[in-house]
Design goal:
Elements: H1 12-24, E1 40-47, E2 51-57, E3 60-68, E4 72-77, E5 80-81, E6 87-88, E7 101-105, H2 110-113, E8 115-121, E9 127-133, E10 146-151, E11 164-167, E12 170-174, E13 197-201, E14 229-232, E15 239-243, E16 251-256, E17 263-269, H3 270-273, E18 283-284, E19 287-288, E20 304-306, E21 314-319, E22 332-336, E23 341-345, E24 357-361, E25 365-370, E26 376-380, E27 384-390
Antiparallel strand pairs: 1-27, 2-3, 3-4, 4-5, 4-6, 7-8, 8-9, 9-10, 11-12, 12-13, 13-14, 15-16, 16-17, 17-20, 18-19, 21-22, 22-23, 23-24, 25-26, 26-27
Length: about 400
Amino acid sequence: MSRVLGPPMRYAAVLAACLALAIALPAGADSTRARPGDGVGLKRIGSFDDPVYVAGAPGYPRLLFVVEQPGRIKVLRRGHKVRRSFLNITGLVRYGGEQGLLSVAFPPDYKRSGRFYVYYVDNAGNLRIDEFRRRGALRAARGSRRTVLRIPHPVNSNHNGGQLQFLGKLLYIATGDGGAGGDPPDNAKSKRTLLGKILRINPRNPRGRRDYIVPRSNPFVGRRGRNEIFSYGLRNPWRFSFDGITARRPRIVIGDVGQDRFEEVDYEPIGKARGGFFGWDEFEGFAPFECDGACARHSIKPVYAYGRSQGCTVIGGFVVRDRRLRSLYKRYVFADLCEGLIRSFRPTLRRVRRAPSTGLRVPSPSGFGEDTRGRLYAVSLDGPVYRLVPR
């Protein structure tokens, strides 16, 4: 089953299914006592054109960047929307369904270097990571585009992944398995393709002789497999993030969209995720999918999985770092595109059985994001962007 983001979600049948879920699962339905999320509210900070992600930029704490799927990045300055787009690449972007401009990432040295990176689906349907430079704080420089990485994505328009995240100076990239159902080419398991993976590169080369540098510590350098691969066996990791980005041993949290039975969240130390196989398409959630009695013993199991009674498409989030959100502090928050409830659980390396509702609802959630102060945002594909605030 394909998972859809963008205009097709407006189709009546899908909306009817989402409405049924909303009626069946009112806010707070799984809570009998005080729950995580108490004392937290949603503050609407603006409305945008099919927003899918937000991010802060190091060195610019008063700015927030909002990614619009058709191909623009908007800026909020001190909470007010700047009229002119920070970046407009609509002419380069194939937009519709799961395709479009999907995320932006700013490296730690952004204030000095002015370089930033975007992930989008180009007009040929390929996945592309490009570098741009800013011109002043509120505009990207025209003509500064440089292609860092282009990944062929033939045949299908879905399962594009879409997330970029920096950990130190290294850029992590989430790609989908190439689309269709069941990953017919076994892209996710193959180490010869960049689809269905978490990739890790250094997007800058001081000598300028290559588009990017592959860290020597990547797991398949000098071994069989593409050097860029960090982890493999993912179906459609639409959103992932890091927990403990300033810690010595950070962890990665991945919301991996399922086939037609289960959605899953993976939570692993970076060291274990390095070279790790996350199971697709031998497993969907905890259940065998196409293992034929010979499932890989070394596959990494999710920490949490849920079925169709709770939703249809996991929207991965963040471990909360905002101390003002006391009931959610250090909890992982996420949502589901159809259900619309923000849920949370305490991240652990053991299996999590429940992810209670926070009581907060976002229609058609498409992503989460953080600013440079660790404040958390929730994004609705219908247009609104919200900040989680104490109340």
